[in-house]
């Protein structure tokens, strides 16, 4: 039979209440008594009942993460970063996906209430009205995407507009004048910001140019469709900028299938710097988002909020600066050749308040990539 708290109390010759206080970290237990109870519990292989412990501590030691999807390298990296930070903080992780649907987002939030100590939310539907309607005020939560309008929640978001502006500026500086942008899904704030950043750069640098936009939905399949469409055009653009790497990789496959060479016939760039981007042929020029770090920082901030009794230290919206990663797909052959053989990347940081991106020195690739 399973060992109970009463068994531990009997063996340790203390009360059940003392065992509970000792094992739950209460400070009204003498150090020697706490050590003795913990030693007995370990020897008896006592496993506390999580539901009972939650009733006492009012904590589940679980963090909920609500994402729009779990498919693809971006979300894999994001979950990896959240999970790594959660384990370091002593928390478990409960994941759910809304599949981009407002109704499913609300249902998932309701299902997590009472099961988690706090929530990380990445959703295109997380506007102020939705949050007020579906999220209790006493549940700590952090947003992981930009939001339109003021919300009571703090947020961490990538400066998509600055990253897209810097990449478009780089393509123009390379001499490309006819640039097609492959957009993301409608209603997605990241996609809208990336499109706007590219349009801003074209307006600033090539004011006479009519923007060319091909629809996409962040999937490899939509990138493949866009690449096939562009390859069939009588007059092809000089460069393609896809709103994420998955679409860029699908587009690369379509262009190669059509007999076009990247970057000799057409240059190509993406956004996110998912791990696969370094290993395409040619390696993909992209805007680096430190995805795992984004998840880890959000988790740490949420845990700090929980420790503060559920109140954020101060409402804030942190914009994380992306970086340009210049590889061979946009014609950076000479720079790639000059870099160490184990590192094909030339990285250039683009801060939100900074001027035009300036090419940086080659940096060593992260080991986990």
From TrEMBL:
<feature type="region of interest" description="Disordered">
    <location>
        <begin position="336"/>
        <end position="369"/>
    </location>
</feature>
<dbReference type="InterPro" id="IPR046335">
    <property type="entry name" value="LacI/GalR-like_sensor"/>
</dbReference>
<feature type="domain" description="HTH lacI-type">
    <location>
        <begin position="3"/>
        <end position="57"/>
    </location>
</feature>
<dbReference type="GO" id="GO:0003700">
    <property type="term" value="F:DNA-binding transcription factor activity"/>
</dbReference>
<dbReference type="InterPro" id="IPR028082">
    <property type="entry name" value="Peripla_BP_I"/>
</dbReference>
<dbReference type="Pfam" id="PF00356">
    <property type="entry name" value="LacI"/>
</dbReference>
<keyword id="KW-0804">Transcription</keyword>
<keyword id="KW-0678">Repressor</keyword>
<dbReference type="InterPro" id="IPR010982">
    <property type="entry name" value="Lambda_DNA-bd_dom_sf"/>
</dbReference>
<keyword id="KW-0238">DNA-binding</keyword>
<dbReference type="GO" id="GO:0000976">
    <property type="term" value="F:transcription cis-regulatory region binding"/>
</dbReference>
<keyword id="KW-0805">Transcription regulation</keyword>
<dbReference type="InterPro" id="IPR000843">
    <property type="entry name" value="HTH_LacI"/>
</dbReference>
<dbReference type="Pfam" id="PF13377">
    <property type="entry name" value="Peripla_BP_3"/>
</dbReference>
<protein>
    <submittedName>
        <fullName>LacI family transcriptional regulator</fullName>
    </submittedName>
</protein>
């Amino acid at each position: 039979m399973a060992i109970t708290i009463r068994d531990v109390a009997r063996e340790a010759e203390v009360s059940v209440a003392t065992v509970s206080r000792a094992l739950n970290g209460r400070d009204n237990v003498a150090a020697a008594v706490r050590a003795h109870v913990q030693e007995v519990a370990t020897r008896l292989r006592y496993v506390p009942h999580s539901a009972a412990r939650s009733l006492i501590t009012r904590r589940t030691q679980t963090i909920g993460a609500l994402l729009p999807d779990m498919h693809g390298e971006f979300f894999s990296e994001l979950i990896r970063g959240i999970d790594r930070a959660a384990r370091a903080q002593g928390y478990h992780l409960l994941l759910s996906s809304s599949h981009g649907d407002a109704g499913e987002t609300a249902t998932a939030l309701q299902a997590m209430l009472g099961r988690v100590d706090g929530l990380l939310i990445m959703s295109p539907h997380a506007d102020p009205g939705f949050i007020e309607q579906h999220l209790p005020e006493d549940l700590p939560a952090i947003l992981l995407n930009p939001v339109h309008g003021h919300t009571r929640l703090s947020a961490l978001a990538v400066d998509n507009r600055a990253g897209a502006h810097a990449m478009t500026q780089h393509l123009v500086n390379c001499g490309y004048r006819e640039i097609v942008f492959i957009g993301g899904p409608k209603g997605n704030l990241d996609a809208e910001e990336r499109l706007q950043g590219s349009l801003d750069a074209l307006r600033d640098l090539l004011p006479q140019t009519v923007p060319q936009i091909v629809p996409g939905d962040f999937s490899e399949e939509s990138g493949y469709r866009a690449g096939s469409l562009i390859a069939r055009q009588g007059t092809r653009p000089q460069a393609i900028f896809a709103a994420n790497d998955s679409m860029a990789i699908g587009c690369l496959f379509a262009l190669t299938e059509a007999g076009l060479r990247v970057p000799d016939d057409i240059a190509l760039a993406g956004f996110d710097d998912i791990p696969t981007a370094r290993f395409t042929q040619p390696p993909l020029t992209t805007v680096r988002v430190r995805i795992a770090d984004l998840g880890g920082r959000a988790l740490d901030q949420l845990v700090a909020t929980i420790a503060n009794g559920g109140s954020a230290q101060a409402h804030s919206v942190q914009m994380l600066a992306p970086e340009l990663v210049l590889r061979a797909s946009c014609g950076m052959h000479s720079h790639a050749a000059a870099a160490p053989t184990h590192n094909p990347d030339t990285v250039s940081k683009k801060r939100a308040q900074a001027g035009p991106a300036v090419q940086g020195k080659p940096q060593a690739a992260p080991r986990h990539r």
